[in-house]
Write a structure and sequence with these properties.
Largest sheet: 6 strands, mixed
Mean pLDDT: 81
CATH superfamily of the largest domain: von Willebrand factor, type A domain
CATH class of the largest domain: Alpha Beta
CATH topology of the largest domain: Rossmann fold
Helix content: 40-55%
Number of helices: 9
Strand order of the largest sheet: 5-4-3-6-7-10
Number of domains: 2
Radius of gyration: 20 Å
Order of helices and strands: HEHEEHEEHHEHEHEEHEH
Low-confidence stretches: 1-8, 35-47, 77-81
Structural class: alpha/beta
Shape: globular
C-alpha cells in the first residue's frame, strides 16, 4: 500500500487543537512555502547569528532564518527584542457574519491574529493583544516570552462578538489609553464605520509615531453582493432589526457605496503612510503572513 502525504486544512484543525495548533500549522506551512519558492520582500541579516548546536535554547532559534535557509540559526545578541507589536482585534457584532464560508469574519481574524502572534514570538519580538466591541475589552501588554503565546491565544478563544460599535471612536480611545508606547499596531476589522471617525483614529496612531498595518477582513458576499432574489437582511449589531429588500435592484447601489467606502479608506491610509491589506474569509490564512512580511520589509 503506497503512502500518501496528508495535507490538513487549518480551519479543520481548529476543531481538534484550538488556535495553538492552527497557528503552528499555518506558520510552519507558510515558512516551508517560502523555502520552496523565493519570496520577494523577505530579507535576512546574519550579522548577529550563529549556527545552532545541540544544547542551545530552542526559544532562541530564528524561525525566519530557518524558513529562508532550511537551517537552524541562533540569535546571538538579543538583549532587547526587535519589535513591540499590539494586535487590535475588532469583536463587534458585524464581525460575526459568516455567509457561506467555513469561518466567520471574527473566526478568520482569530486565526490571522494567532498566526501573527506565533510568527512574531518565534522571532523573539514582543506581542500584545487588544480586543474590542463597543469599547476596549481585554488588553494584554506586549511580552516576548514563549509562554506568552498561550495567554494571547486563550484570550482570543474566550472572546466572542459583541454589539454595535463606533469603530473610529473606539480606536481613538485605544490610541490614547493603551497604545502610548511607540511600536507596531496591527488593526484587524471589517472597517464598517464612518470614514471621518476612522481617519481621526488612524491620524492619532500615526501622530503617536506608531507603524500601522490595517487588515480589512471581509466575507466574499460583502464584496461581490451575489444576492438576486428578495432577501431578508438581519443586523448583527442591533438586536431585532431586519430588512427585506429586492437584492437585484439594490446590488448596483450597494456596490457603488461599498467601493466608495473602500476607496476612501485606501486614500487615507496612503496619505498617512499606513499599510492596507484586504483579506477575504475564503482565502488562506497564510496570505496575511505574506502581506505582513511585505509590509515590514518596505
Amino acid at each position: 500500500m503506497s503512502k500518501r502525504r496528508q495535507f490538513f486544512d487549518p480551519t479543520e484543525l481548529a476543531r481538534y487543537g484550538g488556535l495553538s495548533l492552527v497557528a503552528r500549522n499555518v506558520v510552519e506551512g507558510f515558512l516551508s512555502g517560502i523555502h520552496r519558492s523565493p519570496f520577494k520582500g523577505f530579507s535576512l541579516e546574519f550579522a548577529e547569528h550563529r549556527q545552532y548546536y545541540p544544547g542551545d535554547e530552542i526559544r532562541r532559534i530564528d524561525w525566519r532564518a530557518f524558513g529562508k535557509t532550511d537551517r537552524y540559526f541562533i540569535k546571538e545578541y538579543e538583549d532587547e527584542t526587535n519589535l513591540k507589536a499590539v494586535l487590535v482585534v475588532d469583536a463587534s457584532g458585524s464581525m460575526g457574519y459568516q455567509g457561506k464560508q467555513k469561518l466567520s469574519k471574527f473566526a478568520f481574524a482569530q486565526q490571522v491574529t494567532a498566526s501573527l502572534a506565533y510568527l512574531l514570538l518565534g522571532q523573539l519580538d514582543s506581542v500584545g493583544l487588544l480586543t474590542h466591541d463597543t469599547k476596549p475589552r481585554a488588553y494584554i501588554p506586549p511580552k516576548s516570552e514563549g509562554k506568552h503565546l498561550f495567554t494571547l491565544l486563550r484570550t482570543l478563544e474566550q472572546t466572542h462578538v459583541g454589539g454595535e460599535t463606533s469603530l473610529g471612536e473606539v480606536w481613538n480611545q485605544i490610541a490614547g489609553k493603551h497604545l502610548k508606547r511607540r511600536g507596531l499596531v496591527v488593526l484587524l476589522s471589517d472597517c464598517f464605520g464612518d470614514i471621518p471617525g476612522i481617519t481621526r483614529a488612524m491620524r492619532h496612531l500615526r501622530y503617536s509615531r506608531h507603524e500601522v498595518i490595517l487588515f480589512q477582513i471581509l466575507a466574499p458576499e460583502e464584496v461581490d453582493f451575489p444576492f438576486k432574489n428578495p432577501t431578508k437582511f438581519k443586523s448583527l449589531e442591533v438586536k431585532g432589526y431586519e430588512l427585506t429588500v429586492d437584492a437585484r435592484r439594490l446590488r448596483e447601489e450597494y456596490q457603488k457605496n461599498f467601493e466608495d467606502h473602500r476607496r476612501q479608506l485606501r486614500k487615507i491610509t496612503e496619505e498617512l503612510g499606513i499599510d492596507y491589506v484586504m483579506l477575504r474569509t475564503n482565502e488562506p490564512v497564510e496570505r496575511a503572513l505574506g502581506a505582513y512580511l511585505r509590509c515590514r520589509d518596505t
